[in-house]
Amino acid sequence: MIQAIIKFGIFGAILFSGITASRAQEKDSIFSLDTAEHKTKLSINFGVDDKDKKEAIKYPRFFGGMTFTRIDWGFSRIMDDGKFTLSDDNQFLSYKKASNFGFDILQVGLRFSDNFKTYLSGGFEWNYLRLEKNILLTENSSSLSYQIVDENDVRYKKNVLTSTYLRLPLAFEWRSNKLRNGDRVKVAFGAMTGILLKGTQRLKSDANGKQKFRDNYNLSSFQYGPFVRIGYDDFGLFAKYYVNDVFENSPAQAGLNNFTFGFTLGF
User: Fold this and answer.
1) Which of 83, 183, 220, 221 has the maximum number of C-beta atoms within 10 A of its C-beta?
2) What pLDDT is stored for residue 21 in this prediction?
3) pTM for the whole thing?
4) In the beta sheet, which residues pair with residue 204?
């Protein structure tokens, strides 16, 4: 997680440097800075941006290009047939904590008016499941399986199952008219889809040190479900519910779904 944040922080810094270094791109590139209020907006865009301008704007109008925004950080809960309590068959997936992190790096959309727009974006999303049980998931298995590791031999201090998805949300967004301070209330909803890039189990123990195993672990190769965001200015809350099963080709885990909620930046 920390390495991923650092990498994309560097990526954001490079984008910002590119903006300041090239006046030829200033019309179509923006790192939003409200000098009157001394507030730095939490988004970077290359291409035709969707920011408010002083001059008159004609609608509808297209926008799109590279971006770094809609940064989601929150908690996840595994739902088992609609319940937050895991069934006996799925107790091996009991977790101490589960979290979700993601952001968008590309977008293209159409603004219909000052208040309404729709857009398709692309980015990445990570789901982290910090397992309680002293188990090792089986690699290259036809269905999700695991083995119990004897704690007398190896005791895992850290046991995290991570799924990495390329996310492709389709969103519809409404924003209020400008308030007295120039900010707006915003509401967005739509469909969040994703394609599995990889699965990873990270382990840490005194006996074996740090270990990392990469496999798809029968994680769903395609995830999808509704999402909603509500916020003010650049800050908001989000909730996502993935309708698909967390694991595929695993009848015993049928009905396990992922529900995530938390904070979003760069709304």
Assistant:
1) 220
2) 37
3) 0.82
4) 158, 210
Q: Which two tokens stand for residue 92?
A: 């091996």
Which one-letter amino acid corresponds to residue 230?
I
The answer to whether 201 touches 160, Cβ cutoff 8 Å, is yes
DSSP E strands in 81-218: the ranges are 95-111, 116-131, 135-137, 146-148, 156-167, 170-175, 185-205, 209-214
pLDDT score of 87 more than 60: yes
Instruction: Compute the C-alpha angle 236/58/53, nearest 5°.
Output: 50
Let me know the angle formed at the C-alpha of 141 by 85 and 90, rounded to the nearest 5 degrees: 10
pLDDT in tens, 179-205: 999 899 999 999 999 999 999 999 999
Q: Which helix (H) or strand (E) holds 39?
A: strand 39-48
d(CA 105, CA 234) in angstroms, rounded, equals 16
Across 3-7, 65-69, 147-151, 189-193, least confident range: 3-7
* pLDDT at residue 162 is higher than 80: yes
- Measured CA distances, 73 to 165, 239, 242 (Å): 15, 11, 16
Pairing of strands 61-80, 39-48: antiparallel
The beta-carbon contacts of 151-156 under 8 Å, at least 24 apart in sequence, are 153/207, 154/205, 154/207, 154/208, 155/205, 155/206, 155/207, 156/203, 156/204, 156/205
Report the amino acid identity of residue 258: N
pLDDT for residue 259 is more than 60: yes
